Amino acid sequence: MKAIVIGGGIGGACAAIALKRFGIETAVYEAVKEIKPVGAAISIWPNGVKCLNYLGMKEALRELGGNMRFMAYKDYQQGQTMTRFSMEPLIQSVGEQPYPVARAELQSMLLDTYGRDKVQFGKRVTHVEESDDSVTAWFDDGTSATGDLLIAADGTHSIIRQHVLGYATERRYAGYVNWNGLVEIDESIAPADQWTTFVGEGKRVSLMPVSGNRFYFFFDVPLPKGLPQDRTTVRDDLQGYFAGWAEPVQKLISQINPETTNRVEIHDIEPFMQLVKGRIALLGDSGHSTTPDIGQGGCAAMEDAIVLANMLQTNSLGIEDALLRYQEKRACRVKDLVLKARKRCDVTHGKEMAVTEQWYEDLKSETGERILSGMCETILGGPLE
Ligand code: FAD
Asked: Which protein residues are within 6 Å of ligand 1, measured from CB?
């Protein structure tokens, strides 16, 4: 059996590693010459961590992961702590800890694990064709690749999605802009072992530790879509949006490097239940594009990879049957994650300001129990409980 994997991001790389471990021949085709992930870092929650452990990256991931032992919310004006609690009960409940990691390092770990030399870069798929017993991907350089099945891990802008669904999907603007990057840890801004989030006015400023004495930071601001993006004004823009916010936020803005700060308009796609067609499977963002509000998009791609590989490995009724079983196992799970993230997004970003204000009030009486039990439920819904 030979699988053609389109896209060498988190989903494609994990799928390729998983299939390879089961002895299935794989070939990965990636559009760009060099993968430059959108976004500086990513939080891998225990459901994702378990997938990477399962794929043999347990030790490598620990080297990259930040030490996130506590979680805290802070009031935007005074910087007062609204709630602070240990992550330990979550870790004890689910059996693994979360690891925030720099994206470039995660991507390197995945490609090194699979074998970087086995990825064909600069191969952009333009269309796919299926026959009764094979599937062919055509690339923009006029070449093609044929296999027994094709895994479309070509991201949120997937061109293979339309072939699978039979219609075009629209990306939905979630109503806010996210700036993110990495900065050296400064404990006068936030503790080094804590996920700290300042909240107010439907905005947030968040810091998470990653390895190498760095914070992954992000700023979220509800804004119209399509405003000009200009690196030279990033600091001024943030100073404007966060005028009157507490001293640590001002300090963070002064310490970021505008050259390496990313600006992303956040989108998702209305969930759909069809993830496969014949010998083609959508995997990762091509099959479920979510806002990052519960940090599960990449983790879900890792879950997809494990489930798909397991279905192919354990099934003797053929590829199409295995892919349908993959769809059966994944469609509700990923729909649930997209909708959960959308709900969280709306509360966090002031879609209805009264609801957001109530959330701020609730945070003041939060012991950690409610937040961690919500996270637990999400995490335990994964395939490797
Ligand atoms: P991608 O990472 O987009 O990879 C797709 C790959 O396919 C790319 O390398 C691309 O070049 C290639 N490609 C595209 N088109 C073609 C083509 N035609 N032919 C060949 N190759 C092609 N998730 C989490 O789990 N935790 C988080 O904390 C988190 N934070 C996030 C923060 C932000 C601001 C954003 C935007 C997302 C966040 N996510 C997070 C989501 C996560 O980044 C995505 O879910 C994840 O990257 C999806 O992986 P993927 O492989 O499906 O897609």
From this structure: 6-12, 29-32, 35, 38-39, 42-43, 48, 124-125, 153-155, 159, 178, 180, 264, 284-285, 292, 295-299, 301
